Amino acid sequence: MKLDNENFKVYLQKVDKDVSQYSSNIRLLYCINGFLKVKLDDNVYQLKKGEVLAVNVGQYYELQAIEKMGYVCNVDLDSTLFEQRIKTNMFFIRIDQTDTDSTSFNNLKDCLDELIYYDLQVEGKNDFFKLSIFLKIMDVLGKNYLYKLEEENGYSNNDIRSQEIRLFLQKNYMNRISLTDLANHLYISEGYLSRFFKKKMGIGFLTYLNDIRLYHTVDELINTDEAITDIAMKNGFNSISGFNQLFKKKYQLSPREYRNSFKNISSDVENIVKSKAISYLNERKDKNTKITKKYRDIVADSTKHKKYSNNWSSIINIGDAGSLLEERMQQVAKLMHTSLGYKYLRIWNFFETVNIDDEHHEINFDKLDTIIDFILQNGMKPFIVLGAKPYILTFEVYGRRINSLTKNEQLSMNRKYWQKVLSLWLKHISFRYGNEEIASWFIELWKPNKWDSVYTDDYLDSWYITWLKDTINLVKEKIPSASIGGCEFVFSDDLTNRTEMIRIVKVWEELDFSPDFISIADYPYISNNQGKNNSKLSAKNNQIAYYVNEAKQFFYDKYPHAKLYVTEWNLTIANRDILNDTPFKGAYVIQNLTENLRDASQTAYWFASDIYAEYSDSTEILYGASGLVTKQGIKKPAYYAFAFLNELYSEVIYQDDNCIITTDTYGNYMILFNSAKPFTNLYYENQLTTSKMDYNKVFLDLEEVEFALELSNVTNGNYELRSKTVDKENGNLLEVWHQLNFTKRLKLEDIQYLTNLSQPRLSVSELKVTNQKISLKEKLAANSFKLLSIRKIN
């Protein structure tokens, strides 16, 4: 039996206008939202949310939304597998619309739910697990809804003939066939066939045949880059002009316009459709069987491995440069360097600490010297952001935005003072530290964004363009060896970022400037054209990866030697989201750094310490900020995620979104598991308010995940198994604090108590390998992560 993934498809569809479609395989229409009318042959069906209708091979159907719009999941199945099983192609699938409470129908819906859920997880990719779900659906259909077209089963000659017509046309549509050919195939007269065809199919033979051909050309126009003429010819059209005429008559667009219209479909529409699916699954999750991929089978060969680079432990966001004058933040910086290996501290608002005396024309850089001296004396390097970056402590507190024009920003917008201060400072550091030392730093050029309300409507207006040119020229003049790049482009699904990039690149070209690196900020938001603060999270699992690829595609041709740095990334820009304090955040970090951010040269997590997000409401030990450590320096689950990642070896054997296996090539292995769960639709739509007690309601399911791992070609002998686990009960400061009733009144010894009890669970055991194979079974609770070390005992 041949299983071809191309014959199995699942896709979500928004129905907001009448749609005519053709099915070349078995297709299930699963209504997930709204109320649809389906015209199938000479029958009309009303499809409500949660109902399923089968469309058979060669059938035409029309979809219409009864109430404004509806959403349907299309599931295409390989009809040839049914043919192989029952030894005939004369069959059809029929689902009784009145039998919606039966066990078989609910089993079918459970399988469809599982397929949609998993397809959303893997972003449409095919694998064996997904194929197994398709086969489960076919098993339910074959046992309960498959009927042979035979006279002894009560079917008329007309039913059988209609099926023979559909199968013949589906098999031969790409050839030059006529009504005469079909009549000869059926052994009936051409005149009788013409009348029969019109009555049963509702349209004439040639129209029906051309519609089949058009359906197949549309499929290839959307999903391939083949030339339009080639597509038309191989699907049975012998005249390109005739094809164009028929196409435009049916779709009101030329083939080229139709293809381009699909390329320009906004990801916002795509995410709306996906959010409807997630919302439907969330409604169904208490009524159906488990819809999560609970079991993960992993088979890997220890001798097959490739280089695996660490792109997460070089740069960390610290915040405002002046914060490093504070002893608390200095301790954080030292911890980031000594414990997590960070070399570069990314800091901004650089000249906020500079004292300027206009009257006496004096400028004092002492505080800046203190900051840079501290960084260098402790074995680190500065990653300096130059520009008018607003100092936003937290995005919103009590409904009020914290955003104001700082001294640094005012200085940037005054050309005379900016040129003077920057020029003097560059001369100063060149003398104090030497150009050779400064060449090992990074200088990042920042730019305003459309949501920075302190700027004018044209946030890239003349003052900024002038500032950008002056800054590049001065840095390159004073310190030619400096590593300089930018401009922290923030990506979205609209065209704003592309417009920004075009404008910035134009300036670079005018100056004949080639950046050493391109920097982007990567947050999984989609735009509603009202600014980032009004955007919502994308339902795409790989939205972060999508933005990285967008940046690479845009800049690679222009600057092939420039590295791509993601200088800010996180799940959210919000600094009052309790998920930042949970084990889920650690699992999310691992999943993204091992999958979605792999194509970036370096990444910089946003940000090191909760100190950066302190405000009047941050009196508790945890307040939903994005730091790796609390303001008291207690390590949060996200910190341990980075610590576990740092223990991975430099050669990777296996990798997926929940597991990565690495080796040092000397018979030792590091395996990192995570069980990050997807969100419900309500969280994506910003319709959920969470607290310390009920944050789990944002997840689609909370099922544990079981991993069955088999690693082959391993040297026989004794091994030590050492595991570290972070879950609800271990390495979770939030849960330990919960045990103290979330008290605000904490003594010094309480802080130490919380620190001691918020560490990962450690376990050690031994394993004997005798058949050159390591077989392990591991269970992870939802939203947890585990590092497993396997070391040969000499």
Explain what this protein looks like in three dimensions:
This protein has 794 residues and is an alpha/beta fold. 37% of the residues lie in helices and 23% in strands. The protein contains 24 helices and 34 strands. The protein has an eight-stranded parallel barrel, surrounded by five helices. Strands 12-27-28-29-34-31-32 form a seven-stranded antiparallel sheet, with helices on one face. Helix 20 links the parallel strand 25 and strand 26 (602-605). Residues 288-292, 392-405 and 529-533 have low confidence and may be disordered.
Number of strands: 34
* Helicity, as a percent range: 25-40%
Question: Which structural class fits the helix and strand makeup?
Answer: alpha/beta
Shape, per Cα inertia axes: globular
Main pleated sheet: 8 strands, parallel, barrel
Average residue pLDDT: 85
List key phrases describing it.
8-stranded parallel barrel, 794 residues, 24 helices
Write the layout of secondary structure elements.
Elements: E1 9-15, E2 19-22, E3 26-33, E4 35-40, E5 43-48, E6 52-55, E7 60-65, E8 70-77, H1 79-86, E9 91-93, H2 103-121, H3 128-144, E10 146-148, H4 157-172, H5 179-186, H6 190-201, H7 205-223, H8 228-234, H9 240-251, H10 255-263, H11 267-284, E11 295-301, E12 306-307, E13 315-320, H12 327-340, E14 344-348, E15 355-357, E16 362-364, H13 366-377, E17 381-386, E18 396-397, E19 400-401, H14 407-413, H15 415-433, H16 435-438, E20 442-445, H17 462-478, E21 483-490, H18 496-511, E22 517-522, E23 525-526, E24 536-537, H19 543-556, E25 563-569, H20 583-596, E26 602-605, H21 637-646, E27 651-655, E28 659-663, E29 669-674, H22 681-684, E30 705-712, E31 717-726, H23 733-739, H24 748-757, E32 761-769, E33 773-780, E34 785-792
